[in-house]
Amino acid sequence: MTKSQDLAGLLSDAAGAAFAALGLEAQLGAMRRSDRPDLADFQCNGAMAAAKKLGKNPREIASAVVEALKASPLVASGDVAGPGFINVRLSAEGLNKRAEEIAADARAGAWRVETPRRVVMDFGGWNVAKEMHIGHLRSTVIGDSLQRLFRFMGDAVTSDVHLGDWGLQMGQLINEVKLEQPGLPYFDAGFAGPYPDVSPVTMDDLGRLYPLASGKSKTDEARRDEDRKATQELQSGRPGYRALWRHFCNVTRVGLERECASLGVKFDLWKGESDAEPFIPEIVEDLKARSISEFDAGAWIVRVARETDKKEVPPIILVNRDGAIGYHGSDLGTIVDRKRSIDPQLTLYVVDQRQALHFEQVFRASDRAGYLPEKALEHLGFGTVNGPDGKPFKTREGGILKLHEFIGQADATAMARMQEAELGADVSEAERADIAHKVAVAAIKFSDLSNVRTTNYIFDLERFISFEGKTGPYLLYAAVRVKSLARRAEAEGVKPGPISVELDAERALVLALDGFNDALRGAYEKRMPHILCDHAYTLGQAFSGFYAAAPILVESDPVKKASRLALALATLKQLEIVLGLIGIDIPERM
Ligand code: ARG
Description:
The chain has 590 residues and is of the alpha/beta class. The protein is built from 20 helices and 13 strands. Among the domains are: 7-90, Arginyl tRNA synthetase N-terminal domain (Gyrase A, domain 2); 168-263, no CATH class; 403-582, Isoleucyl-tRNA Synthetase, Domain 1 (Orthogonal Bundle), CATH 1.10.730.10.
């Protein structure tokens, strides 16, 4: 990371220098926002740790540091509280200078990484033939927020949807279509082609056939053998099966692209598990030659257990006893593909927490094979989305809610809420629908992302599509209000001017703006988008406090008016950036 120029960083440097002057470690000077904003803006607890080391009185050390800090133009006052807490109040000068920097910077004061990395993000992970449902929403929303964040920080990100297009399910489907439409040329081994361009199945057909086929495969052993055989034949290139499978993929992709467009999510690569296939034979050869892979009960496996393991970590299966490639093999093959085409320094897999063991196995195998090191591969797990009953989200009829229908419901609810709040009343019907959709997407994404990634959460459409409370629509509305304020100011010829904070609410707003770096660092290093959501909310609230206490357009003093407008514009810029990182698009008006 580039060195922080935020207030916490500057103060920590100053306090660090004071600790160093006492012969202590500079790190003891770390300053953070005070827990007691009524008493101080920033605090430092380093004197207690220092005192323990030196066997000295902590209050004495703290006093010496406070005296040194008072010499900084950033600091208005400082004192020692309790056993040796260092409390600091910032000077108006320090706040003004920082606010000016944020106002002048296109990145609203955000830092960026010093050494950008090549990062692959594997998320989405939908399965061919399976209708996209709410269960796959989290990976998509979290992954998209992280790809936006990592790019914003300066990394070179390649996102890959990594479609599930290659497993046993494909063989199951081929056989199910064969049962329904046995006369199709895809099943005729003697057919010379060309195969029809039009798919024999629609997405609705696939959505119906998929559960049917997997149900049969589970209960009927003979059928399962057939399915495994079809999968193996597909993988080894039987032309009719490949042609039919391509239809499955294309039909599915049309639906997925529609959903992605509706959610505003983009992928750089639309690759899938099947793209790993060409790499498998050489991986098997390579790992065999180096005695990393072994032949066990008819399958090629790689052992990954370690002596230090507290749980059982089974081997990965590269090629199973039918000669087919399963989930392990496709993930290892994909690692080799990515190493050659991208050479990523970091790969992030945004996938359900329940797949933790799978990734642990694959990462270990990659490490053992010397492909990509384990420490450059991270599984970012997440919890499930539950309904109000605490069970995985279902439709009222008990089925799994299709994402398409879910978004439709959210759009309708958003429209109803806007009507209640008398929003969007004076725009065209088309624009109102567009605004309602933006409100719905803001609600869906914010409600998901504002939860700590690793926890389960309860999805409650009514609560999340509200213009009040910590919600996406509340923040969207806040941003729209600042936008319209900026437009009015422009129409009235009011120009932003030098920032000079006076009121407590103004100071609080600058401190909130200054917190952006901290939020970015936390979200980036922990890969936790909820930290961005928290920041957006803090900023939105600080702005409403400011706007209530410091009216802008009706202010008679032109200097104050210009200063406040500059603060409002800086807030708007930062709010737009942070909502953008969450994946929320702000309409012009509401
Ligand atoms: N298609 C998988 C599933 O639905 C998720 C894929 C995740 N990515 C990966 N590289 N394994 O469970």
